[in-house]
Amino acid sequence: MASESCDVCERSVRIAGGIGDLWNFAFESTQGLTLELTDGSEFFLCFECMDALPDDHEPAAEDVADLRERTDPVEEDGNHFWHWK
Q: What's the whole-model pTM score?
């Protein structure tokens, strides 16, 4: 199983696929994606943070920075919740 930290909430999320899943037959889905935004910036975001991006215009690096300022980092205590400021 591969994982990567969300660039906004810093939660470590699962990335499906890869050789690790082949050997352990893990069939869980991916929990985030790398987004390339229209301004050329690139971020890895979990699905929850992607849903929090604005819907009224194409997101840009400024929108991700604004979301990061409004989001408290997740503490890795086994509890997969994140909190808005």
A: 0.72
